[in-house]
Amino acid sequence: xxxxxxxxxxNQQTIHNRVQELGQEIxxxxxxxELVVIGVLKGAFVFMADLVRAIDLPLSTDFIxxxxxxxxxxxxxxxxxxxxxxxxxxxxxxxxxxxxxDTGLTMQWLARHFSELGAASxxxxxxxxxxxxxxxxxxxxxxxxxxxxxxxxxxxxxYEEKYRNLPAIYHLNI
Length: 174
Ligand code: IMP
Ligand code: MG
What we know:
The chain is α/β, with parallel strands linked by helices and 174 residues long. It has one domain (3-172): Rossmann fold. The chain is 22% helix and 31% strand. It contains three helices and nine strands; from the N terminus they run βαβαβββαββββ. A six-stranded mixed β-sheet has the order 4-3-2-5-6-7, sandwiched between helices. The radius of gyration is 15 Å and the shape is globular. The chain starts with 5 loop residues before the first strand and ends with a strand. Residues 43, 68-69, 75, 98-107, 130, 151-152, 157-158 line the site of inosinic acid.
């Protein structure tokens, strides 16, 4: 499929402004805390890069990769750990960074996983909150945008591993 079948949802400036706001809010909340920002690969890598540069704190960064979606547009309902953070999580304040939260399955699994590793706290930051399709109860502490429906691509979000490099976010008509 080529990318002509898409409509702009969030432009670069809108995303940039919101990411700066989120960064400032997070910096305020984590003053004097040992903050580890953990990006959920692959979707979060673009957002994560911009977000950490908007958080004016001496934080550390790491990544985790799980698989749940495969190459489809609906969740497979099962989470598998693909790769784990390299640093110790015990007693750290973990901020999980996601591109988009849909059913909540992935994030619910991740939040539990980091609690079990002994994190002092676990909070969730997602650029996009697709709350209408939520099936698993989670609290999104920092949400960039609420978008009700449709399949989104760009700014890290993929469809079958493509379009992550688009600088803005689009609705893909599949
Ligand atoms: P959940 O477990 O159902 O919340 O799914 C979360 C994951 O599904 C995200 O990390 C994305 O990788 C993927 N996903 C959900 N909705 C979209 C979308 O609209 N575009 C691209 N990926 C999506
Ligand atoms: Mg994905």
